[in-house]
């Protein structure tokens, strides 16, 4: 084996360097050991132990220490955590694995129904699009529902900058950098999706399989929805107290007001953006 002072030529950029990594592009020195089965096992072991450690540390922190991940990340304490954006994307990927959970996705029939608050806007777009389908609403609905199911979950990413702007508007005097608000927006969106659209639905399926009569408890706007949102609101108060250094008497009303605005953005802004995007694509 070559010693640490041996000179190597980087296969990626042709730079001369010593030790294991190229000081110009970061490429690792490739030797005979790199092709061994044992090396492959070492890399797999390193990935699993690193992933498990950082991911579960991040998950535990997000769920049980509201705001700590963000305040640590903004203060430069990052090594022990999954980065906020990859963590959010991982939660979304888990969300994608459960296609039966409709979550934030709505069928075309729901948009054009009179029960939907913005049905007049949705209906106007649907009527124009219907011309392209030669008046065949059923065919258009199938095309819409299929495309919407694929686009709804990845599009949730837009809620991060939107939530960041909302937080910036609420707390710009507490933290002057939009970056800080964006980091907490990422943490909160990961928490909300993971809790409301993964954990609660999984609980619904588990309980529903044992007690079929309990399904109404988990219906939209039902008791489970109210309870889960109350839990999130309490979570927000703790997070705001830690991340924005608020007093309890200030954290509670801000948590209520922010969460109300967030639900409105999620329920109307996001869903209408999704609707227009899908209508454009089908």
Which band does the percent of strand residues land in? under 5%
End-to-end gap: 59 Å
N-to-C order of helices and strands: EEHHHHHHHHHH
- Average pLDDT: 81
Task: Summarize the structure in words.
This protein is an all-alpha fold. The protein has ten helices and two strands; from the N terminus they run E-E-H-H-H-H-H-H-H-H-H-H. The chain has a two-stranded antiparallel ribbon with strand order 1-2.
Task: Please describe the topology of this protein.
Blueprint: E1 8-9, E2 16-17, H1 37-64, H2 68-74, H3 84-96, H4 108-112, H5 119-132, H6 137-155, H7 159-171, H8 178-210, H9 223-243, H10 248-281
Antiparallel strand pairs: 1-2
Helix pairs in contact: 2-8, 3-8, 5-10, 6-10, 7-8, 7-10, 8-9, 9-10
Question: Nutshell version of this structure?
Answer:
The chain has 282 residues and is mainly α. 66% of the residues lie in helices and 1% in strands.
Defining traits:
282 residues, 2 strands, 66% helix
């Amino acid at each position: 084996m070559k010693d640490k002072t041996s000179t190597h030529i980087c296969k990626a950029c042709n730079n001369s360097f010593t030790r294991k990594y190229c000081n110009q592009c970061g490429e690792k020195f490739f030797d005979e050991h790199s092709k061994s089965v044992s090396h492959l096992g070492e890399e797999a072991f390193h990935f699993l132990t690193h992933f498990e450690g950082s991911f579960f540390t991040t998950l535990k922190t997000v769920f049980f220490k509201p705001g700590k991940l963000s305040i640590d990340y903004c203060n430069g304490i990052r090594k022990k955590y999954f980065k906020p954006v990859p963590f959010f994307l991982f939660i979304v990927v888990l969300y994608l694995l459960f296609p039966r959970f409709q979550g934030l996705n709505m069928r075309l029939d729901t948009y054009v129904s009179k029960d939907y608050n913005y049905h007049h806007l949705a209906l106007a777009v649907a009527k124009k699009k219907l011309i392209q389908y030669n008046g065949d609403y059923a065919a258009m609905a199938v095309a819409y529902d299929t495309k919407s199911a694929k686009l709804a979950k990845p599009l949730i990413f837009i809620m991060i900058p939107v939530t960041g702007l909302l937080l910036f508007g609420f707390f710009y005097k507490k933290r002057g950098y939009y970056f800080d608000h964006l980091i907490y927006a990422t943490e909160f969106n990961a928490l909300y999706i993971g809790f409301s659209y993964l954990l609660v639905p999984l609980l619904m399926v588990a309980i529903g399989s044992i007690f079929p009569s309990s399904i109404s408890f988990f219906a939209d706007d039902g008791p489970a929805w109210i309870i889960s949102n109350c839990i999130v609101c309490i979570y927000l108060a703790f997070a705001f107290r830690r991340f924005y250094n608020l007093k309890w008497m200030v954290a509670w009303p801000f948590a209520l007001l922010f969460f109300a605005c967030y639900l409105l953005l999620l329920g109307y802004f996001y869903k209408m953006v999704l609707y227009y995007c899908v209508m454009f694509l089908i």
